[in-house]
Design goal:
Blueprint (H helix, E strand, L loop, with lengths): L5 E5 H15 L3 E5 L1 H5 L3 H8 L4 E4 L2 H9 L6 E3 L8 H8 L2 E4 L2 H8 L7 E7 L10 H13 L3 E8 L11 H11 L6 E2 L3 H7 L9 E4 L15 H4 L5 E13 L4 E2 L5 E2 L4 E6 L16 E4 L2 E6 L7 E4 L11 E7 L5 E2 L1 H7 L4 H6 L7 E4 L2
Helix pairs in contact: 1-3, 7-8
The structure holds pyridoxal-5'-phosphate.
Length: 366
Amino acid sequence: MPRPIEALVHVDALAHNLRRARAVAGDAQVWAVVKANAYGHGIERAFRGLRGADGFALLDLAEAERLRALDWRGPILLLEGCFEPRDLELCSRLDLWHVVHCDVQIDWLAAHKTHRPHRVFLKMNSGMNRLGLRPDAFRAAWARLDALPQVAEVSLMTHFSDADGERGIAHQMAAFAGATHDLPGERSLANSAAVLRHATAAGVAADWVRAGILLYGSAPDFPAHDIRHWGLTPTMTLRSRLIATQHLQPGDTVGYGSTYRAGQPMRIGIVACGYADGYPRHAGTDTPVLVDGVRTGTVGRVSMDMLAVDLTPVPGAAIGSEVTLWGRGPGDAQLAIDDVAHAAGTIGYELMCAVAPRVPMRVDEA
Ligand SMILES: *Cc1c(COP(=O)(O)O)cnc(C)c1O
């Protein structure tokens, strides 16, 4: 028998979260961001729940090819544009829309031979200082693109650094509006955090929102807000089973480094899940976990293939009991990936992207 660990991708949950994105984005069209193999869910699996999106945004050209192989004929946007000139050939062949974030990418386009003019999204660096042209260089780049026969349509884009936090987006909105107010073209500004927290402000949702993490049932601004607050639902379950139990006496320790010491008699369970499955090794004692749908916590260090859980609240648990590391448990039980990430000092994004290839992942059509 294979190890009992598995991951499930919930198609109904993806579709639900996409509907939530639409509800808050108003009239804007919705890009489903499916980079990083759909945030670890698998492009092909995620597509089944997200096919109602207006377009798909990603950055790996091989992932764009996989989407076209699924017969997706609608828009695909390359969020980082081309990495080298010959990528433009694939853009022409597969009709990919692409970001242009620097003058060098415009040089490549100017030298590109194509029968099909491209739709491009010119990206402004409005303060994030990652990709994009600064506001004072934006108009010149726009004029250059607009004059190229290789370009059919220029849209305008920027990305927020603090949509999830205190600083907010006003300073970047001002920089973007100042340099673009009289330029034509569709606009795209908002990521998940901006969609959820700021989409009611004028101009934020614009023509296209770029929804990523919210589609996958994680709150971009956890712990300020959780998925329940935003009306989102988990799209991935990581589950396994107990493969052993131990009775501890006061003073007994658990696992490598003996970081947990029992203060009283207690029972623990050993779960077939470790850091080689993608579970965060930095999760310390008391990271939330469900055993038979009952919330309890981990004890001691996470090992490569195993971790230990406190069975005090689940006296009936035994070898074979179902353990939910995150996602949907038995019955109505649920454990948000954000709760686990927070306890491990990281974010939901990282956990869902890190589920290891050795964990079998399958679609749950329920
Ligand atoms: C990843 C990404 C997004 C989506 O971000 P979320 O926080 O997951 O919503 C949007 N825009 C760009 C440019 C991105 O790289």
